Amino acid sequence: MAGGGVTGLVVDLSVRGRLDAAFAVPAGAVVAVVGPNGAGKSTLLGALAGALAARGTARLGDVDLMRLPAYRREVGLVFQDRRLFPHLSALDNVAFGLRSRRRPRKAARATAMEWLERLGVAELAGRRATDLSGGQAQRVAIARALVTQPRLLLLDEPFTGLATDTAEALRSTLATHLSSYDGTTLVVTHDDRDVAALAERTLTIEDGRIVGDGGREPSR
Amino acid sequence: MKHALGRPPVALLLVATLAVAVVALPLVALVAQAHPKAISEALRSQALRQAMWLSLITSVASTTICAVLGLPLAWVLARLTFPGRKLLRALVAVPMLMPPVVGGVALEAAFGRTGLFGAPLLAHTGFSFPYTTWGVVLAHVFVCLPFVVISLEGSLRALGQEYDVAAATLGASRWHAFRRVTLPLALPGIGASLLLGWARSLGEFGATITFNGNYPGTTQTMPTLIYVAHESDEQAVVALSLIMLAVSIGILVALRDRWLVAA
User: Fold this and answer.
1) pTM: predicted TM-score of the whole model, two decimal places
2) Mean of the per-residue pLDDT values for chain B?
3) For residue A86, which residues of chain B lie inside 8 Å, CB to CB?
4) Are strands A201-206 and A209-214 parallel, antiparallel or unpaired?
């Protein structure tokens, strides 16, 4: 089940009153999802991750995600509000997905530590999630989503609320990582800099529908 | 004190003062009536010690049972949507609203020696609840469980589902999410709910005395001892009452963040 392989994403989903979208993304692609507030961008990610109920199909390789409960989908979601577990340390937040898959604690923590290092926040491993700054929390949240090597990575406005230089640094860390990631990535964003730095293609959503599908520049 | 909206109406202040008096005067009188020497003598009486011990054991046992039974039910009410959920919650809440004496009568109908379940239980095992310490625990659980469940449900709802969703996207089954995320995050609320249940259990009188009588050493708890001692030994009653008042104040202090701070 885990990581990598040729697993393109073919989506035809609807969430009543909020989303009615069909599109396909080849394996390994990084696609920006843009559009006005309330257009259905986060709804799309939530539906794919299983965070909310949706109708239709979302084939990732030969698996229809919609037929699986959220915890079996192997989809990594970085929430707009990070949503780190406040009672756990940064390290245990990252190890959580591995522990859920019954990896022994020691091995899970060792792997989690490697990911904190990759995201440049290894020194914060022991710190409580509630004691992290916005930028630090976002790095931990990204490490947490990636540690299980999901086949589909969903990032919901990953740099929102961060200071410009913090966002810039994190953007380049993420770009480096995504270039070597062989799963498919959708990035919801409002920021053209994210599109330029990360994505090779842009989907534009308005009123729950795909109204533009093009190259790097958001089609407006 | 400045009043941007004008002076508060005197009539409201007067009635509010009266309300404080209604609550406070009996408590003040209780403390004023106590003679330390007589109380220390009363505290040495065997009946009182037995009742205190029994109250402690039965309240701790019933609170533990309420935790084990109440948490899953509260989770079901807070996290699942199914037809009849509101009805189920209403059913759970009923013992909270009815007179405890009626609860005792209902327990007798169910688990009494000739009760619906009590009769076959007695026939098959030779065991019956009424007039035993087990009967006291059963009565306490019956009375306290609704308080615990409704309070726990409130805590779980206040926590929201966001972290459950995050856990699920990280591959956690609902059981794993419950154990590793919901439970630890809800711990303060769980503690407060159980303390509330324990306080209710410690003060339980009506259902206990109706279902179990009032036998020293087996079914006589602090409140039921106060009831019989009220006729004869005034200082023992005051001593017992002061102990229970002190416990109540202790609980209030422990829960001050929840109850002493207006939302």
Assistant:
1) 0.85
2) 91
3) 185
4) antiparallel
Rounded to whole angstroms, the Cα distance separating B74 from B217 reads 34
List the single residue in A71, A87, A145 with the smallest CB-CB distance to B172: A71
Closest chain A residue to B176 measured between Cα atoms? A100
What tens digit of pLDDT does each residue of A43-66 get?
999 999 998 889 999 999 889 999
Q: How far is CA A190 from the centre of its chain?
A: 15
pLDDT, tens only, B188-220: 999 999 999 999 999 999 999 999 999 899 999
CA distance B252 to B229: 27
ipTM value, please give it.
0.89
Q: Which of A75, A81, A86 sits opposite B169 (nearest CB)?
A: A75
C-beta neighbour count of B92 within 10 angstroms: 18
Using DSSP's 3-state secondary structure scheme, residue A58 falls into strand
User: Which of A70, A77, A87 is facing B184, going by the closest CB pair?
Assistant: A87
Yes or no, beta carbons of A148 and B170 under 8 Å apart: yes
pLDDT of residue B42: 78
